[in-house]
Automatic annotation (TrEMBL):
Membrane-traversing stretches: none
Record Pfam families: His_Phos_1 (PF00300)
Recorded family membership: Belongs to the phosphoglycerate mutase family.
GO cellular component: cytoplasm
Full protein name: Phosphoglycerate mutase-like protein 1
Region (Disordered): 331-359
Role played: May play a role in carbohydrates metabolism.
GO molecular function terms listed in the Swiss-Prot or TrEMBL record: phosphatase activity
Amino acid sequence: MTSNSTTGILSVCGTSGGNLFPFPSNHHNRVTLEIKPPPPHYLLLLPSFSLRRRRKYPSRSAFALPPPLRASSKSDMDGGVTPSLFPLHRCKTLHLVRHAQGVHNVEAEKDTSAFLSQTLFDAPLTPLGWQQVDNLRNHVHESGLIKKIELVIVSPMLRTMQTAVGVFGGGGYTDGMDILPLMVANAGNNDRSAYSSLNCPPFVTVELCREHLGVRPCDKRRSISEYVPLFPAIDFSLIESDEDTWWQTDVREPNEGVTARGIEFFNWLWTRKEKEIAIVTHSGFLFHTLKSFGSGYHPLMKDEVCKHFANCELRSMVIVDRGMIGSDPSVTNYPGKIPQGPDLPSASVAEKTPPNSSS
């Protein structure tokens, strides 16, 4: 499914339509992202990325980014704009998660040149990372979030799949169960028992939400044929190539390329029927995608959306389909007048009632 690179693009919305709105929550932050086609002077000529075919990303000079939007008045920045209202079926709730601490995070903290080390190829989680996974798992269960999520989308990397399974997967798996495990025991040398695929959402891998591509071995994935035995119940069917054809040894994907890919990913979400989705991905992908929404907002709200994610951090957001990219009808709206009968609107009654007369 290849999105058109010149229509239906995610854009930062002007103040007349509202921007990103925090919603009250007892358990985690929630903000609203709006999708609408950009006006002509903000049109982005971005490369098209396919879930089935990866095109070589262009250089930085090939991207035309829009000028930053600014709030139209001081009252806008003070949060005095009128609240926005959207049809529920034009919205999706996204629970964005950065993977837990990986071995590459620890080594790069000591020396950033470690990112170039072949020993960090497709880096797994550290023991501390698994503790972070356990803590987030407790949170999503205690908050009731696990019961709401209909789908888990995960970047096809060892550290993200380990995080996704550990947080959103089923309970313990034992041999002889009549289901596939989400993750086998000791996958990626993690000393973890197997996780069941019972009583949890389905999992699907999507290449569009991968980390910065190229140069760094920690961001190069293994072949899908290597992952399948480790994560038998994860769906890899949206990935076309067994080998990693997206990663290049000598070319690092530009920041604008990550943003373009993130925009394509968010637009692709409207092809999914699920309304509440968990997405387990990477710091760079989240930062460069979300900051494209960050202009023209109150500084505190911009920080809620755009700041870098910590390891194993979860933020909940609502994405709004202002551009009518999706086509799902409402499942909760009810047409009324069943059965049919007289139903003169009160406004019409007021128009027909002479002045000074009682109704």
